[in-house]
UniProtKB/TrEMBL annotation:
Highest taxon of source: Bacteria
Gene3D superfamilies reported in the protein's UniProt record: 2-enoyl-CoA Hydratase, Chain A, domain 1, Lyase 2-enoyl-coa Hydratase, Chain A, domain 2
Protein name, as recorded: Enoyl-CoA hydratase
Family (UniProt): Belongs to the enoyl-CoA hydratase/isomerase family.
Pfam families: ECH_1
Xref: InterPro entries: ClpP/crotonase-like_dom_sf, Enoyl-CoA_hydra/iso, Enoyl-CoA_hydra_C
Length: 258
C-alpha cells in the first residue's frame, strides 16, 4: 500500500514531470487520474517559466489503458472518455513541448496519450497497442486522427481493427514514435532530451507546435468528438458487455456483432 497519488506531478526548475503512478495496475487510467493530469498541464501550460513537460509511467508499463474494473455501467465509461479527451486537448494546447517517455507497454488510451506528445521515445522492450477492438470498442483519445497521420491509413487500420502489438523498434520504423532506445540507455537518453528541450528556443517550439496542430492535426478536435459519439454508442452494445466480461475473466470473448 502507498499514500502516493495516482499521478505524480513534479516540478524541477523549468521541467514538469507527470508520472502515472499505479504500477500495481500497470498504470491503468481512471477518469480522476486523467483529470488530475489535465489540470496540471493546463496550470503549468500557462506558466511562462515552464519549458517542457515529460509524461511517463511508474514501474514496468507506460499505461495499460483505461481501467475497466469500474465499467459495469455507461456513466463511468463516458466520464473516463471525457477525461481522456480533456487530457489530450490539454497536451496539444500546451505551448511547451511534451516528451513522452514510453518506459513500457502503451495500450489503448495509454497509447493515445503517448502519441499526443510532441517527442516520443520508447524503451526497446516497450510496445504500443490499440487494444480497443479486443473489448468491442473503437480507438479513442484522438487515435483516429493521430495514428493515420503518423503511419498512413493501411497500417492504422490494421492497428485499430486487428489490435496487434507493435514492438517499439517497429513503431519507430513505421514513424509511429520518434525514437527507440536500448533499455540500458533509456534513462540517460530521456535525461538528455529533457535537458535539451528545457534549454531550447521555447518560443520557436511553441510556434512549431501551433503550426503542426493547425496543419497535421487539423482534424483532431473533430476526431475526439466523433470518437466520443461512437464510443458512447458502443458502450451500450452486447459486444462491449461481452468484451469487458471476457477481459475480466481472462478468456476469449464471443462477439455476436451487435
Amino acid at each position: 500500500m502507498t499514500d502516493q497519488p495516482d499521478v505524480l506531478v513534479e516540478r524541477t526548475d523549468t521541467i514538469v514531470r507527470l508520472t502515472l503512478n499505479r504500477p500495481e495496475r500497470l498504470n491503468a487510467l481512471t477518469a480522476d487520474m486523467m483529470n488530475e493530469a489535465a489540470t496540471a498541464v493546463e496550470k503549468f501550460g500557462d506558466d511562462p517559466t515552464v519549458r517542457v513537460f515529460v509524461v511517463t509511467g511508474n514501474g514496468r508499463a507506460f499505461s495499460s489503458g483505461a481501467d475497466l474494473s469500474n465499467s459495469a455501467s455507461n456513466g463511468p465509461q463516458v466520464a473516463t472518455l471525457d477525461a481522456a479527451n480533456r487530457l489530450i486537448r490539454a497536451l496539444r494546447a500546451a505551448p511547451q513541448p511534451v516528451l513522452a517517455a514510453i518506459n513500457g507497454p502503451a495500450v489503448g488510451v495509454g497509447c493515445s496519450l503517448a502519441l499526443a506528445a510532441d517527442i516520443t521515445v520508447a524503451r526497446e522492450s516497450a510496445y504500443l497497442l490499440l487494444a480497443f477492438a479486443n473489448v468491442g470498442l473503437m480507438p479513442d483519445g484522438g487515435a483516429t486522427a493521430m495514428v493515420p497521420t503518423l503511419i498512413g491509413y493501411a497500417r492504422a487500420a490494421r492497428m485499430a481493427v486487428l489490435a496487434e502489438r507493435i514492438p517499439a523498434p517497429l513503431a519507430a520504423d513505421w514513424g509511429l514514435i520518434g525514437q527507440v532506445v536500448p533499455d540500458t540507455d533509456y534513462d540517460a537518453e530521456i535525461a538528455r532530451l529533457t535537458t535539451k528541450l528545457a534549454n531550447g528556443p521555447t518560443a520557436a517550439y511553441t510556434r512549431t507546435k501551433r503550426a503542426f496542430n493547425a496543419m497535421a492535426l487539423a482534424q483532431l478536435d473533430q476526431a475526439l468528438d466523433l470518437e466520443r459519439e461512437g464510443q458512447s454508442a458502443l458502450f451500450e452494445t452486447a459486444d462491449v458487455a461481452e468484451g469487458i466480461a471476457a477481459f475480466k475473466a481472462k478468456r476469449t470473448p464471443g462477439f455476436i456483432g451487435r
